Each structure stands twice: as structure tokens, then as C-alpha cells.
Amino acid sequence: MPFDSLVPINDNIPQSLTQDLVTQVQNLHEQADALAGIHGELRSAAPILIQELDAIADAFRNFAQLMADARTADGAR
Which of 9, 33, 66, 72 has its CA 20 to 30 A from that of 19? Predict the structure, then answer.
């Protein structure tokens, strides 16, 4: 359904204002579509991002354990 058919005809509203309103609604509709696309991309990328963050966290935990082991070994000498 075209947006201009959604705007009621009112003789008190200038045609240019009505056309501006229609243009703004169309722009908002296009922006909403773009945001929906971005949202979909983020949802599909989230599991990969979570896996990568988990791997980074594991690496930090392993490094911390290595440092603790090195301190323990250094103190035993």
C-alpha cells in the first residue's frame, strides 16, 4: 500500500506538508528495513563472537595459571 494513500485528505493541510510527511514516512520505513538487516547480521554473528570471546578468556586463564605455576616453581628453588 503506498504511503500517500495512508495520509488523509484534509483541505487545511498544505499539499507540500503532506508530501513532506509522506517522504519522511518513506525514509523512516527504509531506515527500519536497514536496521532490521543489521539486526539479522548481528544475530547470526553472535555465536561466532561468543566462541571467540570464550577462546580469549581461556587463553587468559591459561596464562594466569602459567604465571602462578612459574611463581610457585621460582619459590621452591
Answer: 33
In angstroms, rounded to a whole number, what is the distance separating the alpha carbons of residues 24 and 33? 14
What is the C-alpha separation between 61 and 68, in angstroms, rounded?
Answer: 11
Sign of the torsion formed by the C-alpha atoms of 50, 52, 56 and 59 = positive
**pLDDT tens digits, residue range 16-64?**
777 888 899 999 999 999 999 999 999 999 999 999 999 999 999 999 9
Q: State the amino acid at position 66 in one-letter form.
A: L
Supply the DSSP symbol for 9.
Answer: P
Whether 34 and 53 have beta carbons less than 8 Å apart is answered as no
Say what the pLDDT of residue 51 is.
Answer: 95
